[in-house]
Amino acid sequence: MTYASPRRAKGRAREEAVVAAAAQAISELGFANVRVADIAERAGIGPGHVTYYFPSKAELLLRAIRDSESDLHSQIAAQVHRISDPWKRLRRLIDLAISTGAGDPGWVLWFAVWAQAATDNAVARGGAELEGWWREELAEVIRYGYDRGDFSTEDVDGVVLSLSALIDGLSIRLTLGEAGLTRSKLLDLVMASAHLQLDPV
What we know:
It contains nine helices and no strands. By secondary structure, it is mostly helical. It folds into two domains: 1-55, Homeodomain-like (Arc Repressor Mutant, subunit A), CATH 1.10.10.60; 65-198, Tetracycline Repressor, domain 2, CATH 1.10.357.10. Helix 5 (86-97) packs antiparallel against helix 7 (121-148). The protein starts with a helix and ends with a helix.
């Protein structure tokens, strides 16, 4: 038992290193261009170890995006739900979710997921699961504001779909470095749309 436990810990650490290296390689080279050797080099291990933990690049991509979304989930749990004002709660949630700027690694991972989802059912299911989690987080914040009387809507799902699409579209443009689009402007545009859809008449 004392021998196996350190081995398991070493295995977990190596697996996490592979995932982190894959996320870095994908953000730098693009998913289609990433080779197992690129990931192994960044992780400081042999290519055989990469394929031992993840037999396919698609499996590695799914693990990388899940880890990225898990970090977002932890931030939301720690910061968003303790904010009592519904509008400030919504703004903080959106602030955590949008792109940080050109080349944002988390959003580049999403580019790869969306591209692979068109031809890989496993990636499509995994991506849909994660997007469903995000939409439920957004819906929960909207329902909170509605229950307090700060938001007015009869179609929470419609607002969630609209705001999610706006966040995705603008974050894609920001990640690609569109001229004139800043993170602050992106946040303001999404919040302006939220006010149009949720402000009580």
